[in-house]
Amino acid sequence: MAIDVKSYKKRFLHDQKPNINLVPFIDILFTIMIFLVVTSNFSAVDSPMDATDSGATGKPNVTDTSGNAEYYIVPVANLHKVTVNGVDRSDAIANSAIGVQARVMDEGQVSIRPGEIVIVTPDGISPDKAVQRPKT
Predict the structure, then answer these.
(1) Is 45 helix (H, G, I), strand (E, B) or coil?
(2) What gap in Å lies between CA 131 and CA 72, rounded to an integer?
(3) Could you tell me which residues come within 8 angstroms of residue 70 by beta carbon, excluding any fewer than 6 positions away?
(4) Is residue 84 a contact partner of residue 130, using CB atoms and an 8 Å limit?
(5) pLDDT tens digit string along 22-80?
(6) Whose CA is closest to 116, among 72, 79, 70, 73?
């Protein structure tokens, strides 16, 4: 008795249809999505983050420093507190901005955080002279 390989092959290939199980694929996608959500850092920030907003001490990024201005206006989103050498100078805030003396910008330390500025002046400059209310 001869084995009919050709008809068996034809019947075998004809009866087999691709069977794709999507459940493991969906499980893997949800697992990856949960991993990405858990490991992501979602933080609300009042203004765009750059080197001046990170809270590190240093000079703020003043866009126009040319000329011979005595005070430079430093705007900070939702500015509510200004401290100069430990003295609260929040009364000098106008429209979320503060005027900082040029010498303080050059020689002092200015730390800007969201809503707050902390200034350490060089020797010989009082807190009243270091910052001033911007004229509107």
Answers:
(1) coil
(2) 9
(3) 101, 102
(4) yes
(5) 899 999 999 999 999 888 877 655 555 444 444 444 454 554 444 556 887 888 888 88
(6) 79
pLDDT digits (tens, 9 = 90+) for 106-135: 888 888 888 888 888 888 888 888 888 887
Say which DSSP state 133 is in.
P
pTM of full prediction above 0.90: no
Rounded to an integer, what distance in angstroms lies between the CA atom of residue 107 and that of residue 116?
20
Half-sphere exposure of 55 (CA within 13 A, CB side): 3
Where are any strands of DSSP class E within 49-123? Answer: 57-58, 71-75, 81-84, 87-88, 97-101, 109-113, 116-120
Q: How far is CA 95 from CA 3, 32, 81, 105, in A?
A: 94, 45, 12, 20
Q: How far is CA 101 from the centre of its chain?
A: 27
